[in-house]
Amino acid sequence: MTDVAQRISALRQELDAHNYRYYVLDEPSVPDAEYDRLFRELQALEAEHPELVTPDSPTQRVGGEALGAFGEVRHEVPMLSLGNAFEEDDLHAFDRSVQSGLGLAGGDLFGGGAEVEYSCEPKLDGLAVSLLYENGQLVRGATRGDGSTGEDISSNVRTIRNVPLKLQGEGWPQVLEVRGEVFMPKAGFEELNARQAETGGKTFANPRNAAAGSLRQLDPKITASRPLEFCCYGVGQVSGELPGTQVAMLQQLKAWGIPISRELKLARGVQDCLAYYRDIGERRMSLAYDIDGVVFKVNNIEDQQQLGFRARTPHWAIAHKFPAQEELTELLDVEFQVGRTGAVTPVARLKPVKVAGVMVANATLHNMDEVARLGVMIGDTVIIRRAGDVIPQVMAVVPERRPDDARPVHIPEQCPVCGSAVERTQLIKRSKGKESVSEGSVYRCVGRLSCQAQLKQAIIHFVSRRAMDIDGLGDKTIEQLVDEKLIASPADLYQLTFEQIIGLEGFAEVSSNKLLAAIEASKRPTLARFIYALGIPDVGEETAKVLARSLASLARVRQALPEVLTYLPDIGLEVAHEIHSFFEDAHNQQVIDALLGACGLQLQEEGELSAEFSAVATLGGMLDKLNIPSVGPGATQKLAERFGSLEAVLGGDWLDMRQTLPERQAKAVREFFDGEGNAQRARAIEQQLRDFGMHWESEKKVVEGLPLAGQTWVLTGALTVNRDVAKDKLEGLGAKVAGSVSAKTHCVVAGPGAGSKLAKASELGIQVLDEAQFRSFLRDKHQIELD
Ligand code: IVH
Which reaction is catalysed here (predicted)? Predict the structure, then answer.
């Protein structure tokens, strides 16, 4: 062997060993950076010596050529399914039939009977897959298909990180077919859906669908980009001997590098099995992946063979399912609710049905696009799903059960509460220098605060704890105040008299005085709280804080042009337009003026403009914000470099511009500024940036002065808080949120089920917070609540 071939082989061995420790043993052995270094060295050597590339090299997971269609694979040993147990009694019946099948003394009158050993495994909710190894090399991957014939998905399974391309150790049979489930962990699913939503791709209803959609891709590069995992639970065709029990066999496969469940346990007798079922059931929500039950298998393989099969299911195994989380019921009607910002949303009224132990009579339909996607009609039989505490959802329609008199769902033309017009929202998008407006999925009642529904919600929001924090004003009281026309805007709260309050239901002298005092005490809010309390569509607490921190005065926030707002962190063009039009609205202006005038509110404004804002403007960047058709950021940068100031650009001749830009773009710039109002708009933006203290010529630099600036955080394991929310909060404080732990990581937030990242953090001595500690860190140090 040449030196290069030797080095390549040594690198592969080392990388395989690290992969094994990482994915199978869950005990990472080297920092990511070291792994990456070895990987890049191997990639470079293989690029120089393509003749030395082998299919089992760790570099060969990226996904090969796309296929036109999947080939067929016949399963030598059929891929079976499992019988189900739903109740304890079903499990006892299964155990009795096992005992009698094995000729053991079954349970007698005294409750005795032998105790059969069962292997216990979680029932992963994914897709069954077969992986064929010949002489230790992965040669084929296949779906289950109908059990006898599946599809050849070899190129796709090769991209799954924890599927070994080559077996470890020694002694494996020449032919070894392992079987297991390919699934998508919950966190990966959330991230994938967020990514898909951002890029306008298809989002998936649940991790199972996402796993199925990702595995059945003709282009393996797509599969490679999806966070899939494999977990082995059995074998098919095997050319030699394997250990004689299910548990020992899986342990042996693990030693050869095949990932198996960390929850694998041995139970003696049915009581042990039930304890396992209850234990996993309790931990189900905090597992990193979805399961729909557990699987019990007679542990002794000879006993399995003796028990044999019934049609498509074995006599020696059973799936003990968790109570159904999906049920069928009838859609009685669709009603429309009006939210705080006027969004008119469809709500399904259902014939009540018990789903996983809870009666469900209403379910969300999200918006009219969702109604169209589901193709749902009133009268339909629908599938309802309830997951944990989440609001029940309509998952699908059963078309065969549609009655003849089913009625379509229409968005009302008038608001069901105030009768104002209902309009479809518009989406403003920008790409390649072009701004385009398209129809949004949300409909809004245009009545704003003249709509009682919006008014009530707006006031409930205004007084809420994280907004103006007026204690003692419950939802019911607010409804009464609005219904009795005592208030018609948040400003009216500050004009309420003792007599008016004591006249309300549930108020006496002490409570009335208390409420008046709470209203009085709310008159000095911080700027951020006040902006949040206004209830501007799409402006949550975080955005309110960004506005307050960056612009530091309400006057500036009120005047800010949309283009200027987009300079702020995390404010896109759409939100910027929402903010701008909120403050342009005459009624809103009146209410704000009243709050600051007659009502006597005094905002605790932040004073100085923050460095974060004033450091980010460049002429090129500003020209880019103008969205000159066919002129992108590269071109505006060149213009800025050539002309140096806005006035010079505005006065520039296109021939002059052609010195730096192609003719077509030079003409486009000239035409744009000759167009109505555009030069003026540009001047107004520039002027406002200057008024707001922008350090004009400075280049964009890192955000300094934020509390977590320069820190890298990692989130891992199952967290009850939505990861995107946690990430946003950390980023808002200036931190970076990374996907893997390295020596540079500042802190790891680890939920239950955290594996290798947590291990690595402890190895490197990095600070680890559990979710409760993380929440109190954000709350106590930075006044941030996660929910
Ligand atoms: S054993 C003959 N074990 O459940 C035994 N299946 O309902 C056949 N599954 O097609 C399968 N976790 O996709 C087995 N630990 C586990 C499993 C499991 C999930 C799936 C598998 C199978 C289906 C049967």
Answer: NAD(+) + (deoxyribonucleotide)n-3'-hydroxyl + 5'-phospho-(deoxyribonucleotide)m = (deoxyribonucleotide)n+m + AMP + beta-nicotinamide D-nucleotide
CATH architecture of 712-782: 3-Layer(aba) Sandwich (3.40)
pLDDT at position 698: 34
Q: Are 103 and 303 in contact (CB under 8 A)?
A: no
Q: Where are the domains of the chain?
A: 3-60, 83-321, 448-522, 560-692, 712-782
Indicate the CATH number for domain 3-60: 1.10.287.610
Is the CB–ligand 1 distance for residue 123 below 6 Å?
yes
Dihedral sign, Cα of residue 266, residue 270, residue 274, residue 275: negative
Atom number, ligand 1, closest to the C-alpha of residue 84 = 7
- Residue tagged 């496969």 (tokens): 253
Give the predicted TM-score (pTM) of the model. Answer: 0.51
Superfamily (CATH) of domain 448-522? 5' to 3' exonuclease, C-terminal subdomain (1.10.150.20)
| Residue nearest (by alpha carbon) to ligand 1 atom 1 | 233
Q: Which residues are annotated as a binding site for NAD(+)?
A: 32-36, 81-82, 121, 144, 181, 297, 321
Tell me if domain 448-522 and domain 560-692 are identical in fold. Answer: yes
Cα distances from 126 to residues 228, 291, 396, in angstroms, run 10, 9, 19
Q: Which residues are tagged catalytic?
A: 123
Is 508 a residue whose pLDDT tops 60?
yes
How far does the centroid of ligand 1 lie from the alpha carbon of residue 723, in Å?
30
CATH 3.30.470.30 fits 83-321, yes or no: yes
Is residue 546 within 8 A of residue 568, CB to CB? The reply is: yes
Model pLDDT for residues 522-562, shown as the tens digit of each residue: 999 999 999 999 999 889 988 999 899 888 899 999 999 99
CATH top-level class for 560-692? mainly alpha
260 lines ligand 1 (CB under 6 A): no
User: Mean per-residue pLDDT for 702-706?
Assistant: 51
Q: What is the pLDDT of residue 387?
A: 63
**pLDDT one-digit tens code per residue, 370-401:** 999 999 999 999 999 876 556 788 989 999 99
